[in-house]
Each structure stands twice: as structure tokens, then as C-alpha cells.
Design a protein that fits this description.
By secondary structure, the chain is mainly alpha-helical. It contains 15 helices and four strands. It has one domain (about 10-335): ABC transporter involved in vitamin B12 uptake, BtuC, CATH 1.10.3470. A hairpin with a 2-residue loop joins strand 2 and strand 3. Helix 4 runs parallel beside helix 6, helix 4 packs across helix 10 and helix 6 crosses helix 14. Residues about 315-338 have low confidence and may be disordered.
Length: about 350
């Protein structure tokens, strides 16, 4: 690989580091705070991209797993006085286990049945958080002890910024490794045609559960980091509006584009803050930005078609026919992507 091609392959991480450094050294509390929130949400979008972008399974349950991360961290540090790092590990492991348990029956569903089931799961967690006293009810839980190493608190702006971007970098590295692995190629075959993928030996249910669990664990990391940074958790953080916002971020950032997760989160979270003073035309400006992104990123039509098709009708069941060769060829053609 020539130096030019090597630089071209690394331009996204290099640009991310440069922008993050510019924000950090600007000393602006506004930009450091918002960039931290963007990086935290981007981790959840990377997880969602594993499930939707690689495995082709449309799930609206990501907010539920973000809630698992946030509430486990809050409850075990506030009520049981656990060390926040141990609570974080429990939150991530717990989200993976819960996802695997729920994924076993849910991921047998196809199309709009899966979409509605995962939406119900996400909203069920929201309803539980609203009504359960041990979760703080509608008021939530505040004064949550933050993650810390010695005197350094990761609820402080700069340490929180570094932690969020560091974990985002790890999540993108994980995504890249998985995308080019045999499992990633199996996920891509599933996303093209599940019955054909199964006919060439891809264990579809096992692979879908693995994608669901990994997506949930990254969602839990995101949820826990947000609660750590703001020292508050409440059900309003995981409402149906947040579900829509997550898919907007994924749509803007693009499928199979982990660094695009930062762009999507920035557009959805930061632009409204920048134009908040333009009360009369704020909505119009934001809609125009979204429209421009859709026009300039035509590859996002794939995501739109995937969501629409999952809602309109179920996918074919295994055994209904299809070309195994097509799935194998598609998985093989995808090996060099990224």
C-alpha cells in the first residue's frame, strides 16, 4: 500500500483526532460539553450499526439497553455503594445477558414483527423506569457518584471528554475488526437474505443474538457514560423521542460507518443548540439540514429501504427458497469493503 492510499484509509480517524483536539484546546466549555455528549451517543450508534448495518436487523430497543447501563450504574452506586467501575462492568455485562435472553425469542421474528417487538421492549423499560420506586420513578436518581481514578473525576469536563472519545475509539476499532471477520461476513449474508445465508451454513439465530448482545453492551456503555457525566438518570432520557433521534443519527451517519456516528450525533444534538435562538425558523433550518444530508448521502437509502421493508412486511421464512450462491457471493464481495 502506497503512502497516499495509507493516508486515504486513515483520513477519518485522523480528522476525528484533529477535530477532538481542536475542541479540547479551544477551552470552550460549550464545545467540550457538547462534544462529550456527541461522543457518548456515538458509542450507542456504533452498537446500533452492528445490529442494523452489519446484521440487517432493525431494532428499536437500543434506548432500553442504554437505560440498563444508566440505571444499573445509578442504583448500585447510590443504593448499594458499589465502586462505580464495578457497577459499570455489571451494567455492560447485564445488558449483554438481558439482550441474549430476550433475543432468543425475539430474533426468531421477522420484518415488522421484530420491529414492533423491539419497540415494545424499549418502551417497556421506559414504563418500568417511570413507575418503579427503586428506580426513582418519574423523578429519577440524582447525585450519582462518578467514575474516578484517584483525585480525577470523570464527571469533570476534560476527563469526561477524554473518556468518551477513548471509548468511542475502542468501539470503532471493535466495529472494524468485526466487519472484516468471518462473523461480520456472516452478518452481511444475513442482511442480504437470511434463508440463503442459512443454506450455506451461517447459524442465523446465533449470529443475530451475538449482534443484538454486542449492540446492547455498547448501548449500556453509552447510557452509563451519560449518567456518569451528568450524575443524573431519569426515564425522560429513554423515551420514544430518543428512539427516533437514535435512528436519525444512524441515518445521517450512514450504515457501516462508525465515524459517521459522530456526524449523525453532532447534527441531531448540536445543531439545535446552535440555532436555538432562532425560535421562529429553528425547525425549518433543522429540517433543511436533514434534507441536505439525505440528498448528499444517497447510500442512506439502503437504511431507509431496510426500515420500511421491515415495517411493511415480514421477511421470507427459512426454507422458502432463494439463492445460496447469491448470499455467498454477496458476503464474499463485502470482504474488501471498509
Amino acid at each position: 500500500m502506497t503512502a497516499g492510499k495509507r493516508l486515504l484509509a486513515w483520513w477519518k480517524p485522523i480528522l476525528t483526532v484533529l477535530v477532538a483536539a481542536a475542541v479540547l484546546f479551544s477551552g470552550s466549555s460549550f464545545w467540550i460539553y457538547n462534544a462529550t455528549i456527541v461522543a457518548i451517543y456515538a458509542i450507542a450508534i456504533v452498537g446500533l450499526n452492528i445490529l442494523v448495518g452489519l446484521a440487517g436487523q432493525v431494532s428499536f430497543a437500543q434506548t432500553g439497553f442504554m437505560a440498563v447501563g444508566g440505571y444499573v450504574l445509578a442504583i448500585f452506586t447510590v443504593s448499594f455503594h458499589w465502586d462505580p467501575w464495578l457497577a459499570l462492568l455489571l451494567a455492560v455485562a447485564g445488558a449483554g445477558i438481558v439482550a441474549a435472553l430476550f433475543g432468543w425469542p425475539l430474533l426468531r421474528l421477522r420484518g415488522h414483527y421484530l420491529t414492533m417487538a423491539t419497540f415494545a421492549l424499549g418502551m417497556g423499560v421506559y414504563a418500568l423506569a417511570t413507575g418503579a420506586n427503586f428506580m426513582g420513578g418519574a423523578v429519577g436518581i440524582s447525585a450519582i457518584p462518578p467514575l474516578a481514578i484517584g483525585p480525577v473525576s470523570f464527571a469533570s469536563p476534560v476527563p469526561a471528554f477524554l473518556l468518551a472519545f477513548g471509548l468511542f475509539a475502542l468501539s470503532t476499532a471493535l466495529f472494524s475488526v468485526l466487519r472484516n471477520s468471518p462473523v461480520g461476513r456472516g452478518w452481511r449474508a444475513l442482511s442480504v437474505r437470511e434463508d440463503a445465508a442459512a443454506s450455506i451454513g451461517v447459524p442465523s439465530l446465533r449470529y443475530k443474538i451475538a449482534a443484538f448482545a454486542l449492540s446492547a453492551m455498547l448501548g449500556a456503555v453509552s447510557g452509563a457514560l451519560y449518567v456518569n457525566f451528568t450524575t443524573y438518570v431519569g426515564p425522560d432520557l429513554y423515551s420514544s423521542t430518543i428512539i427516533v433521534n437514535l435512528f436519525l443519527m444512524l441515518f445521517i451517519g450512514g450504515l457501516e460507518s462508525p465515524y459517521g456516528s459522530l456526524v449523525g450525533a453532532a447534527v441531531v444534538l448540536v445543531i439545535p443548540e446552535l440555532i436555538s435562538g432562532l425560535a421562529n425558523i429553528e425547525g425549518l433550518i433543522f429540517d433543511m439540514v436533514l434534507l441536505a444530508v439525505i440528498i448528499l448521502r444517497p447510500e442512506n437509502r439502503t437504511l431507509g429501504r431496510r426500515i420500511v421493508s421491515s415495517i411493511r412486511q415480514p421477511s421470507p421464512v427459512i426454507g422458502s427458497g432463494g439463492s445460496a450462491e447469491a448470499a455467498g457471493e454477496s458476503a464474499g464481495n463485502e470482504r474488501g469493503r471498509g
